[in-house]
Design a protein that fits this description.
The protein is α/β, with parallel strands linked by helices. The protein has five helices and eight strands.
Length: 178
């Protein structure tokens, strides 16, 4: 069984987007702007034996942009950054979908499909949903504060905090659990 790092997308891998002063997501592949050090972080994690998977809620897909656009954005994560797999939930909060974070469906599916060791795995995110996802799935959590973090208006209790994905990756690697 292999450990994994489950990465939130917006605010962790790519810059958050604001539209009319409101938090949003990229609506096109061109708007998907990777943060500094992201590719290096993923490569370092993979060299240490971690699977790198993206788990992201995308309820705007099919409304503000097409599913084809979402696919193209996620293909870039695999092609340009070396992400192993991307899981995405297009449903909203009221859907009761088991994949919609903080519900653990995406992680459970990945663990089953790829024989992942969840107890040795991490969730890295910038929102309360990511921290709760880690707890709900049985992983450890790393918070990367972003512009989006303050919009949560919640007290967060991550296991660890890092300034960016590269710092988070090096923190995880320092535990030498892979």
């Amino acid at each position: 069984m292999k450990p994994a790092v489950f990465l939130d997308r917006d605010g962790v891998i790519n810059k958050v987007v604001f539209r009319d002063g409101k938090l949003s997501v990229p609506f096109s592949s061109e708007e998907l702007e990777f943060l500094p050090g992201v590719r290096e972080a993923i490569l370092e994690l993979k060299k240490k034996g971690y699977w790198c998977l993206v788990v992201t809620n995308q309820p705007n897909a099919g409304k503000d942009f097409s599913f084809e656009t979402l696919f193209l954005m996620h293909q870039r994560l695999k092609d340009e950054l070396g992400v192993d797999v991307v899981y995405s939930c297009p449903h909203g909060d009221n859907s009761n979908c088991l994949w919609f974070k903080p519900r653990p469906g995406m992680i459970q599916e990945a663990a089953h499909s790829f024989d992942l060791d969840i107890g040795r795995s991490f969730v890295i995110g910038d929102r309360w949903r990511d921290i709760e996802l880690a707890k709900n799935a049985g992983c450890r959590s790393v918070l990367i504060p972003s512009e989006a973090t303050k919009f949560d208006n919640r007290v967060l209790a991550p296991d660890y905090t890092a300034a960016n994905l590269l710092e988070a990756a090096r923190l995880i690697i320092s535990f030498d659990t892979a």
